[in-house]
């Protein structure tokens, strides 16, 4: 049995996969916004899963950010209370066994590249667009972490080809301005809508308003789609993936899958673009399945 944990900003999810990759049990709890309480919640989830299945499993954990090779501490997490914490020492000690850790977007890409929407493709770029904006790369079902452990971190590049009203861009939690994340995350979409005279609405509400014919919401989504086309165009120019898989809350906006590919060709250095843009097969639970698969290799 393989147990996966997905540590998110609002929820911690656990899944147990059997030998045939079928789900044996799934659990979800709210994420405490404090390090030691988060550790305890993760350990309790593992114990609950093992109690229910009657088995002891391997444990893989998807985290926002990564474990720094230099310090052994979490870095680059948008769940900022986790930064600088020794989770790679503390969680194995709590559970009494080895634990493998990987960036949550990398876990998402591994899941979708293994038996998800990117199954059978050589190169998969996985994108999470929700509270933040993450990315991960797999090549033949192997995560490309990179020498500095930032492989796939497209969200903290500047938005390509910024227009005058996009400079210098919103401030990002990483300390820079104009990061892709500040435009393509859910809060980024909501901020843009409000900045152009709209009411305070969530990304899902803006998408629903656009579908209902509201002009301000439709224009907001059109700006969002152009920005995504620019951002993904840069990714295609660098790694040229077979498929790009979208996950996270904003991946449920149906029009992205036609409107973004219709626009990205003008930002890509090729006479034709056959990269596919698809929705995640395993939905918002894909990352936890990838975490469980960290012991497959």
- N-C termini distance: 15 Å
Largest sheet: 5 strands, mixed
Number of discrete helical segments = 9
Would you tell me the structural class of the helices and strands? alpha/beta
- Helix/strand order, N-terminal first: EEEHEEEHEHEEEHHHHEHEH
Helix content: 25-40%
Name of the CATH superfamily of the largest domain: ATPase, nucleotide binding domain
**Strand arrangement, largest sheet?**
3-2-1-4-7
Top-tier CATH class of the largest domain: Alpha Beta
Given as residue ranges, the uncertain stretches (5+ residues, pLDDT < 50) are: none
Number of strands: 12
* CATH structural architecture of the largest domain: 2-Layer Sandwich
Number of structurally distinct domains = 2
Computed Rg: 19 Å
Q: Into which percentage range does the β-strand content fall?
A: 15-25%
Mean pLDDT across every amino acid position: 96
CATH fold assignment of the largest domain: Nucleotidyltransferase, domain 5
* Mass-distribution shape: globular
Explain what this protein looks like in three dimensions.
This protein is an alpha/beta fold and 297 residues long. The protein folds into two domains: 2-106 and 285-295, Nucleotidyltransferase, domain 5, CATH 3.30.420.40; 120-280, ATPase, nucleotide binding domain (Nucleotidyltransferase, domain 5, 2-Layer Sandwich), CATH 3.30.420. 35% of the residues lie in helices and 20% in strands. It is built from nine helices and twelve strands. Strands 3-2-1-4-7 form a five-stranded mixed sheet, sandwiched between helices. The chain has a five-stranded mixed sheet with strand order 10-9-8-11-12, with helices on both faces. It has a two-stranded antiparallel sheet with strand order 5-6. The two termini are 15 Å apart.
């Amino acid at each position: 049995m393989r147990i996966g944990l997905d540590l998110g900003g609002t929820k911690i999810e656990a899944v147990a996969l059997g030998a045939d990759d079928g789900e044996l049990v799934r659990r979800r709890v709210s994420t405490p916004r404090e390090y030691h309480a988060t550790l305890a919640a993760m350990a309790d989830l593992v114990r609950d899963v093992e109690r229910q299945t009657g088995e002891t499993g391997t444990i893989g954990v998807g985290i926002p950010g990564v474990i720094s090779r230099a310090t052994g501490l979490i870095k680059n997490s948008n769940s900022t209370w986790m930064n600088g914490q020794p989770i790679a020492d503390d969680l194995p000690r709590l559970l009494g066994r080895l634990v493998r850790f990987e960036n949550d977007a990398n876990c998402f890409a591994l899941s979708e590249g293994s038996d998800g929407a990117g199954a059978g493709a050589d190169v998969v770029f996985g994108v999470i667009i929700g509270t933040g904006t993450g990315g991960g790369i797999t090549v033949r079902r192997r995560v490309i972490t990179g020498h500095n452990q930032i492989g796939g971190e497209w969200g903290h590049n500047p938005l390509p080809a910024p227009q005058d009203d996009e400079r210098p861009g919103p401030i990002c939690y990483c300390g820079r301005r104009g990061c892709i994340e500040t435009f393509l995350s859910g809060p980024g979409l909501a901020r843009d809508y409000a900045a152009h005279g709209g009411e305070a609405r969530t990304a899902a509400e803006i998408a629903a308003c656009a579908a209902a014919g509201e002009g301000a919401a439709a224009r907001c989504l059109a700006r969002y789609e152009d920005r995504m086309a620019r951002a993904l165009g840069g990714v295609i120019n660098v790694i040229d993936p077979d498929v790009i898989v979208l996950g996270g809350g904003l991946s449920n906006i149906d029009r992205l899958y036609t409107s973004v590919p219709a626009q990205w060709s003008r930002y890509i250095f090729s006479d034709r673009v056959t990269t596919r843009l698809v929705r995640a097969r395993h939905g918002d639970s894909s990352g936890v399945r990838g975490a469980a698969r960290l012991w497959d290799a």
